[in-house]
Amino acid sequence: MAAWSTRTALLSDLDHLRSLLADSCDSEIIPPSDVLASSVERELVRVAEAEGVLVGCVVTELPSPAHARLSLIAVRDGMRRRGVARRLLDETVRELPGRSSEPPLISAVARTAELPVARLLLTGGFLGTRLIRTGPSGRADHLYFQYKSRVEYIDPDARHLVPATAREQLAESLGPSDHAVTALLSLGGEPAFEIARFEQDDPATLQSGEAAAGIAFSGSILAAITFLLGFAFSSSRFPDDVRLLLIGATFSTVLSLIVYASASGELARIRSNSFGRIMKWGNVLSEYGGVFPFLISLPVTYAQVSDNPWTTMVLAVLLSSAVAWYERSEFSIAHRFHRSRTEITLMALTAAAPTIGAALVAANAVSWPWTTVLTFTLVTRTWLYLFRRGPEADIAERRQWQIRN
Questions:
Q1: How is domain 7-103 classified at the CATH fold level?
Q2: Residue among 169, 177, 183, 184 nearest 198 (CA)
Q3: Distance, CA of 168 to CA of 165 (rounded, Å)
Q4: Distance CA 360, CA 348 (A)
Q5: Beta 126-134 vs 401-403: how paired, if at all?
Q6: pLDDT one-digit tens code per residue, 286-297
Q7: What residue spans define the domains of the chain?
């Protein structure tokens, strides 16, 4: 088996791409030369290469920043059933969301008779949502596939099989908006599509609940920070720089409450397209401006009232360990975004901050350099997630649909 690799197509690959498509596809589905060249120029074509020869490709069109269409998947005869198409498809779906601030809807169209293509798409996270009839007399049947980027649930008792050749039954089954093709199976030795009914959620209700939870959480954190800040002002031994840190945390948490209230206003005006972006601001401000400063200040506060440095350091180390675990868990905001080396370093500094701060206060050392570094770390992380990263992404390991138990 020849070794092969994948990469983004270059303009110098155009002639080889046309040769690959001519050898692997029907002439009627090959895109025009200008369309193919435009996709290559916009880095929307991924190719597989073996020993200097192109053996597979996925061609994508981007008619708008909000919609990407996989217009062609091709693999040479000698390289089929080796995972080439699967890898090209997975890489394409993984890279497309990073091309714009809002992840585009990813779709594909395949004839109902193209069973290998249908199986590839269905096992790659796509759903067949409707039947499209084209051609002069509307006799050419195509399935419209859509990639599901979020988890949805299907009713386990509302599934049925339709033979792939039963055109009228397939069209009828896909008529309701909550029905879709989820798998290609074998029925009596013949291919059949599994049709499933998806449970319909009310987005407004779900988003309203999310906004209310954000407001309640930030309100609780604000109350805790205010209590700690009151203790800081009543203690003559409390470092001024840590007082300033808590004041900043109070300000940031109040801002997050305002942002969550704004998200509720977006719902009231039925402008749900802005809801996710606004909620990201509230989540980031609440976590890096409120929660982390509060938690990191706890061992510092304990060091002020305790004369036992051992218990102070045990508490600080335990809290640092808990912060480090949280940062690596799927519950943290950092887990929802791509992590660079810089962000990993900032995460390590955040986790180490409770131990370092408690040690400085317990030793009666100057603590303002620690507070300065911590503030810079949290501000930098806030800036990264608000301005350098796109919308919160779904976790890659999640399945796009699940059966409701």
A1: Aminopeptidase (3.40.630)
A2: 177
A3: 9
A4: 18
A5: unpaired
A6: 999 999 999 998
A7: 7-103, 105-200, 203-388
